[in-house]
Amino acid sequence: MDTLYVLKMGGRAASSKETLAELIEELGELRKSSRFVFVHGGGAEVTKVSEVFGLKPVFRNGIRLTSEAEMDIVDMVLAGKMNKALVRLFAARGIPAVGLTGVDGDLFLAQPIEEGSRTGRVVDVNPGVLALLLDHGYLPIVASVSRDRDGGGININADEVALELAKAMKARGLLYLSDIPGVLKAGTVMERIDAETAAREIEGGGITGGMIPKVTSSLEAVKRGVGFVGIGEYRSKGDLEALISGKKGTKIV
C-alpha cells in the first residue's frame, strides 16, 4: 500500500455520469493495492452558475480571472456542490471518501496572480492531512480552491493543484484524465517523453501550444520526485490501469 497516485479528473469522466461511475468502480478495485488522491476542478459548472447571477466570466490565455463576486460562486460550486456530489458517489459505491479544499488542514496556500484577482497559484503545500486520511484508509477528494496569506478565497487551476500535491508527496504517478488521448505529434500519440525528447519536439514544432507548458511542468515534477506523469483520456473501465501501465496515453518520465 505504499504506491501513491494523484489523479486529476477532467474531460468525459467529469461530464458523463456513466463514465464517472466506471472510473469510481475501477478506482475501488485499484485501491486494494494502491493509494489515490483525487483532485477536481469544475470550470464549466462555475461559468454556468456565474451566468445565472449575471456575472460574465473573463479569461486571459485560457486562465479564468476570478473576481471577488465570482469567488463566492467558485466556493459554492467547487467546494460545495461538486465536491460533495463526488463524495456521495464514492460513498454509495463503498469507498470511504473525504472532501477537502486547500484550506482544510492548511493543505495548500496560494497567492493571486495579479492585484485584485481571486485567481492564484500554489506557493506552499502541507500534505499532512492527506497522509493522515490515507493512513486510515480514506480517499481524499480535493477541490482546487484555497486561501491567500490574508485569508481571502483563491481559485486555482486544478491541474496545478494536482501537480503541486504530487510533487510534495513524491507520488509514484500523477495522472491527468482529459478528452485527448495523450500528447500528440502529427495526430499520433507520443507514448513516452523524456527531457531530451521534449526539448527536441518543442524546438522542432512537434509539441505545440498549450501542451508545451503541460509537458515542461510535468518534467519538472519528475525531477522533483514524481515517478511519472500520465496524460490520456478515460472512456471506460480499464483505461486508468492502462494509463498507469503505459498501455494508453502518454507517459512523461
Helix content: 40-55%
CATH architecture: 3-Layer(aba) Sandwich
Strand order of the largest sheet: 5-8-2-1-11-15-16-14
Which class do the helix and strand fractions yield?
alpha/beta
Which features characterize this protein?
four-stranded mixed sheet, 253 residues, 9 helices, 26% strand, Carbamate kinase, globular, alpha/beta, eight-stranded mixed sheet
Summarize the structure in words.
The chain has an 8-stranded mixed β-sheet with strand order 5-8-2-1-11-15-16-14, with helices on both faces. It is built from 9 helices and 16 strands. The radius of gyration is 17 Å and the shape is globular. The chain has helices spanning 12-15, 17-30, 43-52, 68-92, 128-135, 158-169, 195-204, 211-223, 239-245; strands at residues 4-9, 35-40, 59-60, 63-64, 97-100, 108-112, 119-125, 139-143, 145-147, 153-156, 173-178, 184-185, 188-189, 192-193, 228-233, 250-252. Strand 6 and strand 7 form a beta hairpin. Helix 3 (43-52) crosses helix 4 and helix 6 packs parallel to helix 8. The protein has a single domain (4-252), classed as Acetylglutamate kinase-like (Carbamate kinase, 3-Layer(aba) Sandwich), CATH 3.40.1160. With 253 residues, the protein is of the alpha/beta class.
Task: Give me the secondary-structure topology.
Blueprint: E1 4-9, H1 12-15, H2 17-30, E2 35-40, H3 43-52, E3 59-60, E4 63-64, H4 68-92, E5 97-100, E6 108-112, E7 119-125, H5 128-135, E8 139-143, E9 145-147, E10 153-156, H6 158-169, E11 173-178, E12 184-185, E13 188-189, E14 192-193, H7 195-204, H8 211-223, E15 228-233, H9 239-245, E16 250-252
Parallel strand pairs: 1-2, 1-11, 2-8, 5-8, 7-10, 11-15, 14-16
Antiparallel strand pairs: 3-4, 6-7, 9-10, 12-13, 15-16
Helix pairs in contact: 3-4, 6-8
